[in-house]
Write a structure and sequence with these properties.
The chain has 130 residues and is an all-beta fold. It has a domain at 47-128: Immunoglobulin-like. It is built from no helices and nine strands. The strands form three sheets. Strands 6-5-8-9 form a four-stranded antiparallel beta sheet, with no helix packed on it.
């Protein structure tokens, strides 16, 4: 038995399948399939998540959530507190965001990434391991 489905829009869809069995008995089966309308859920809180992978070489993803449209500044600092990169400094829509950090030009070591969005501020540690 083989069949292919087409692209479905969001919502719930019912499908009726007719299958011929080996002993010539025909069986009908109905299945209900739900498709998520909202693939980028908007959480109700600001959040900064641990980068992945960590340790990393040479790039990593940094994810954060915004509950509302916000001006976001995302910086990376070395162990001495010197800013080595500004990844974002602009207005972003509400929702889950991912920023890729490429550290190809940096030495191995411990780095910190900090987000400031409105009144929300958080700093986390990451390790570049070559």
């Amino acid at each position: 038995l083989a069949f292919a489905e087409g692209d479905e829009s969001g919502g719930v869809h019912n499908h009726l399948y007719t299958m011929a069995l080996l002993n010539d008995v025909i069986e009908k089966t109905t299945s209900t399939v739900g498709v998520d309308d909202n693939l980028n859920p908007i959480l109700k809180e600001f959040a900064l998540y641990q980068n992945y992978p960590n340790p990393f070489n040479p790039s990593t993803d940094i994810k954060f959530n915004l509950p509302e449209v916000s001006t976001v500044k995302l910086d990376v600092f070395n162990i001495s507190g010197e800013r080595v990169a500004t990844l974002l400094n602009k207005q972003e829509n509400a929702g889950l965001h991912t920023v890729k950090f490429d550290a190809s030009n940096l030495a191995s070591g411990t780095y910190f990434f900090r987000i400031i969005a409105g009144e929300y501020q958080k700093t986390m540690k990451m390790i570049l391991l070559r």
